Write a sequence for this structure.
């Protein structure tokens, strides 16, 4: 049985596309989901990285904008890689990601004019 994960949140940045010489391409973006806390001031978003391959990635690029509320469905995977810390010691890092199967736009499309007006009035 395959794992399946569904998250509801807000898109963090413009999706980034990387093409490979094999003809495949991957689109990456992150989604902020609410993390539970008993204290409102302690509630911080939990950022989840999302990867969409080929045609699903094309749909992501054409429809998803930063700040947009979305529901994403996919397979949970773990990316592992080596990096070095500040002391030059090699460290193995494991990072959860969502391999996107589908997404659904939710809520109104963010209005960039509203954000601009709010900051000008402040």
């Amino acid at each position: 049985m395959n794992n399946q994960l569904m998250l509801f949140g807000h898109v963090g940045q413009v999706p980034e596309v990387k093409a490979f010489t094999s003809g495949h391409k991957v689109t990456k973006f992150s989604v902020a989901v609410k993390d539970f806390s008993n204290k409102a001031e302690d509630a911080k978003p939990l950022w989840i990285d999302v990867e969409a391959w080929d045609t699903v990635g094309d749909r992501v690029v054409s429809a998803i904008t930063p700040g947009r509320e979305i529901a994403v469905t996919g397979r949970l995977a773990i990316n592992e890689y080596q990096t070095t810390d500040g002391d030059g010691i090699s460290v193995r890092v494991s990072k959860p990601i969502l391999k996107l199967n589908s997404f659904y736009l939710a809520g109104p499309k963010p209005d960039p004019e509203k954000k601009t007006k709010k900051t000008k009035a402040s």
Summary: The longest strand covers residues 90-106. DSSP finds two helices and six strands in the chain. Residues 54-63 form the longest helix (10 residues). Confidence is low (pLDDT under 50) at residues 116-122.
